[in-house]
């Protein structure tokens, strides 16, 4: 696990709210109003997920000219009692040849790579219920502990995770950076400022992930509004998916980000360390370098599913 230590960032304001590790990992959500990917609502009801499943992740690469069509499946018997199936399938994507191993490129036909993996899976409604319950538990714990004297920002209750669409949706990353609403920035403007600072832009193409947010009547999903990236190699990069968040979901935070580091294959071949904590610091450092913004960290307890995350949210204000 990557340990978080911001002591090297002189002058950075830190907010580390104490609680036992994994405080919410065992929560079983029951009941929420949720919506489908298209924005429609669904009735409240009991939820038995999301669940953690261990199984086999299978990648199949089919040559298509100078590129490859990448098909991915996750197979686990842990899934069957909850979803009536043991296999999760994802939409195929096109991958550049430099992002597949040499032995795949040298193969005359399709190639398969597989390995053991663990993921968190659920329906849209189940993921929404889990986030709703986590927010409620956060609020209860914070009300009991009282206000934090060193904080310059209000408590965060916005979106907590990134998700990947599939035949069953998968929780893929923590939300780990947020911009205060009073700054007046949109996701597009956040990206523009980082690009204008010199090193950020759009480099290697990336696939979509979505967040869940409350629109005033139900939970809905949306994919990222913008990508912002900083190259660290031929195909490796720091990467943030930026999302505009409506005030109905969170009055105090307007833009959130799932920041991580993409390895050379962008996770299409291996199960990488996404460096979530390091990526959060990379974004905070980038905004402090602009000279007119301050940063701090707030513990939102959304890191227990991810080895390189410690559940901290970096706040720009």
Offer a quick outline of the entry:
The chain has 5 helices and 17 strands. With 317 residues, it is α+β, with helices and mostly antiparallel strands. The two termini are 28 Å apart.
Query: What structural class should be given to the helix and strand makeup?
Result: alpha+beta
The gross shape turns out to be globular
Contiguous runs where pLDDT drops below 50 for at least 5 residues: 1-47
Distance between the termini: 28 Å
The number of distinct helices, counting runs of at least 4 residues, comes to 5
Give the overall pLDDT as a whole number. Answer: 84
Subunit arrangement of the protein: single chain
SSE pattern: EEEEHEEHEHEEEHEEEEEHEE
Strand count, sense and barrel status of the largest sheet are: 7 strands, antiparallel
Helical content band: 10-25%
Tell me the strand percentage band.
Answer: 25-35%
Q: What is the count of β-strands?
A: 17
Radius of gyration over C-alpha positions, nearest whole angstrom = 20 Å
Could you name the key traits of this structure?
alpha+beta; 7-stranded antiparallel β-sheet; 317 residues; 5 helices; 17% helix; 17 strands; single chain; disordered N terminus; 6-stranded mixed β-sheet
Protein described:
With 317 residues, this protein is α+β, with helices and mostly antiparallel strands. The protein is 17% helix and 33% strand. It has five helices and 17 strands. The protein has helices at 80-83, 102-106, 124-145, 187-196, 276-288; strands at 34-35, 41-42, 51-64, 67-75, 87-89, 93-96, 111-122, 161-164, 169-174, 177-180, 210-214, 219-223, 226-231, 237-244, 253-262, 295-299, 312-316. The strands form four sheets. Strands 3, 4, 5, 6, 7, 8 and 9 form a seven-stranded antiparallel sheet that branches. The longest helix is centred in the middle third of the chain and has 22 residues, at 124-145. It is globular, with a radius of gyration of 20 Å. Mean pLDDT is 84; it is low at 1-47.
């Amino acid at each position: 696990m990557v340990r978080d230590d911001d002591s090297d960032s002189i002058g950075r304001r830190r907010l580390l709210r104490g609680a036992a590790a994994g405080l919410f990992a065992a929560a079983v959500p029951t009941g929420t109003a949720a919506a489908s990917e298209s924005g429609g609502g669904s009735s409240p009801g009991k939820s038995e997920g999301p669940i953690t499943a261990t199984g086999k992740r299978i990648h199949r690469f089919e040559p298509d000219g100078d590129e490859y069509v990448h098909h991915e499946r996750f197979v686990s018997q842990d899934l069957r009692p909850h979803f009536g199936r043991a296999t999760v399938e994802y939409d195929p994507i096109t991958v550049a040849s430099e992002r597949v191993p040499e032995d795949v490129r040298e193969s005359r036909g399709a190639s398969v790579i597989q390995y053991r993996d663990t993921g968190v899976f659920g329906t849209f409604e189940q993921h929404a219920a889990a986030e709703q319950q986590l927010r409620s538990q956060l609020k209860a714990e914070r009300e009991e502990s009282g206000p934090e004297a060193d904080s310059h920002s209000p408590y965060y209750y916005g979106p907590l995770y990134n998700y990947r669409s599939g035949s069953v949706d998968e929780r893929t990353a923590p939300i780990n950076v947020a911009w205060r609403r009073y700054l007046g920035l949109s996701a597009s403007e956040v990206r523009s400022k980082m690009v204008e600072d010199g090193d950020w832009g759009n480099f290697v193409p990336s696939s979509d992930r979505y967040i869940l947010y409350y629109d005033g009547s139900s939970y809905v999903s949306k994919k990222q509004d913008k990508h912002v990236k900083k190259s660290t190699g031929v195909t490796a990069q720091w990467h943030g998916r930026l999302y505009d968040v409506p005030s109905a979901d969170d009055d105090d935070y307007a833009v959130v980000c799932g920041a991580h580091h993409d390895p050379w294959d962008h996770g299409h071949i291996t199960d990488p360390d996404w460096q979530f904590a390091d990526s959060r610091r990379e974004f905070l450092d980038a905004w402090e370098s602009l000279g007119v913004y301050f940063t701090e960290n707030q513990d939102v307890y959304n890191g227990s599913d991810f080895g390189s995350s410690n559940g901290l949210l970096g706040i720009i204000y």
